[in-house]
Amino acid sequence: MRWPLRVVWPGVVLSLLLSSGWAQDPFPPGLNPDDLAVLEELLTDVSPAVTLSVDGPQAAKPGQLLRLDAITDRDAAVLWHAVGVPADSWDTANGGATLFFSTAIPGRYVFLAVCAAQGTGPVPEIRSIEHVVTVSGPVPGPPPGPTPPVPGPAPTPDVPSLPAGRFGLAQLVYDGVKTLPPSEKPKAALVSQSYLVVSSQIAAGTIRDFNSALGEIRRRNEGKLDPNRAAHVQAWGNPLAQKLADLSKAGKLVGPDDWRAALDETALGLRTWGEQ
Question: Do the beta carbons of residue 22 and residue 262 sit within 8 Å?
Fold first, then answer.
């Protein structure tokens, strides 16, 4: 039996953001245990763990077509999730289990495979695995001509220009977190995983409303930023919260696709600085 991955997402309004405490602090203490009881029950599955692996290359040349196959040990629905990857450079086949990817732009591209398989509990069992593809080599230039274009200046290595995405959150978060001491980079990279996992849970349908998504992010980030949590909140947490509040007020955060895009962009900004 395959579990559907699409869900109906309730509308999100500005009052929910502000009343949740996000605007003041995106990493407040965990929710009351009574409030999390239902969520914890849904996230617990005592069935044997479904295995998930990826078969495919991790390096490519510009313009090369790659195939990545998500492999499971049982009948499972598979979803591929691309982080900061242009939508027109990849597609899926074989019911979502196979991903094809090609780009002429060198860089590091992160893909997340997520599968949902039937377990003994009330909800599908979720597994995810990350696969990184590094595209390197010379970029094909324009054909010879009488007046070839003059190449522009090379980008500054420590100040990358991140994809604008839907909301521009990746650059916003990166610009904030890069003001922290380099010793905080491992924490930023670790926290970025929380956003990716919750985004995948939204896509898989195990998180069905904003309150649950926010609570799961809080739970996963609790303790990861200590003892410099306040510095992170000041550097990038507060600007991110204000931007999300503005987007919600403008009616641009209204469903699961919007929230997944916001979480993915946040993760990309954190990861880029954390792995430099």
Answer: no
Amino acid at 60: A
Q: Is residue 29 exposed (0-12), middle (13-18) or buried (19+ Cβ within 10 Å)? A: exposed
Q: In the block, which residue shows the tokens 């009330």?
A: 122
d(CA 34, CA 163): 40
The DSSP 8-state label assigned to residue 52 in this structure reads: E
N-to-C CA span, the chain? 42
Q: Which stretches does DSSP call E strand in 118-203?
A: 125-135
pLDDT 10s digits, 227-244: 988 999 999 999 998 998
What DSSP state is assigned to residue 178? T
Model confidence at 173, pLDDT cuts 50, 70, 90, reads very high
Q: Decide: 253 and 244 in contact? Cβ < 8 Å.
A: yes
